[in-house]
Amino acid sequence: MEEANEVPQSSISISLCMIVKNEEKVLGRCLESVAGIADEIIVVDTGSTDRTQEIAGQFTASVHHFQWIHDFSAARNFAFSLATKDYILWLDADDIFLPEDRSKFLQLKYAPLDPAIDTITMLYNLSHDQYGKVTSQLRRNRLVKRSNNFQWVGAVHEYLAVAGQAFHSDIAVTHSPLEHDADRNLLIYEERQKKGEIFSPRDLYYFANELLDHQLYNRAIEYYQRFLATKQGWVEDNIGACGKLADSFYHLSDPENQLKYIFTSFTYDTPRADFCCRLGFHFLQANQLLQAIFWYKTATQLEQPSETWGLVNYSCRTWLPHLQLCVCYSRIGKYQLAHEHNEQAAKYMPDDPRIAHNRKFLRSFIEPQPETVD
Questions:
Q1: FRET partner for 110 with CA separation of 20 to 30 A, picked from 176, 221, 336, 372?
Q2: What sequence ranges are listed for the domain Glycosyltransferase 2-like (predicted)?
Q3: What are the backbone dihedrals phi and psi of residue 267, each rounded to the nearest 5 degrees, phi first?
Q4: Nearest CA-CA partner of 56 in 39, 79, 77, 31
């Protein structure tokens, strides 16, 4: 007698909770990518006028309406309240699991999981280069124990307030937007401001981000400075504010204040590669090439962090400083070093036209040598 094949039993059950509005172009792609991961899919619509609800209905019968009150946390908490499984997974409609990450997630689901784990964090890949390599990334609490009743906080740029034991996975969610409502979040903040609401430090920071995205540099500077003055910000947001202040002052042609906030970032942590590249660029533009070389070389020599919750700019940790060092060394007549750094950059982006242009230019000054960086 043949034995029946046993169906593997998952270690945990998962509710996927989403809030959506007018996401007909991306929602199906997202829900297809979670096949086999979610035991329950809950979609909360906040006022779609397209086919979003119809598409959601092709994947789940649990499609609900939530009256939009300009509060993302309220909508997300409502979605969470409908979950019935052991853990809650959250995604936005323009997020997906790539096949490799879906496979990793399924391994996690079917492997024994310590019941003491309250939250599982995952990487969030925000952008990629033309070679498919991640260029910016951060980490988020992505899968949380339902019985803990964790809540979302903040009307806009909300965050999930969690506590307890965390497991930091190498699974990544990939953000893959097709469109973006650029004005939505700014309008929410400005409406809250008109009502006289007192902004938290986090609100000040994210309001400033929206102002900067709209190139309202002077207003952005005001709110970043107000945020830093509270001395209550998360260290990664403090560093982020310094970078955005430096960028704002650059756009306003104010190099003195640009430098001020680059160096202010060093008071919160050891120098980050993106700030070293900002300094390198400042000195390169001023034709202070030795100073530029120092800071670009420093960017190439920094240790890669094993874990970070803040935004990581991989360009500044990989090809960008090498490409700029090629420029710097070429200008001071050290063509062999220029060549070597150009080849280092080529390891990350071999088909970039700038690499080919530099090779052609340098060919008349040197013969190709073994690739060794000073």
A1: 176
A2: 15-134
A3: -80, -15
A4: 31
| H helices, E strands: number in the chain | 14, 11
3-state secondary structure of 95: strand
d(CA 266, CA 238) in angstroms, rounded, equals: 11
Per the CB < 8 A criterion, the answer to whether 149 and 164 are in contact is: no
Lowest mean pLDDT among 171-185, 273-287, 336-350: 171-185
Res 11: pLDDT: 87
Q: What is the pLDDT of residues 220-236, one digit of tens each?
A: 999 999 999 999 999 99
Residue 153 in tokens: 């906080």
**Domains, the chain, ordered by start:** 14-175 (3.90.550.10), 181-269 (1.25.40.10), 271-374 (1.25.40.10)
Report the distance separating Cα 47 and Cα 66, nearest Å. 8
Consecutive H or E run containing 158: none
Q: Model pTM greater than 0.70? A: yes
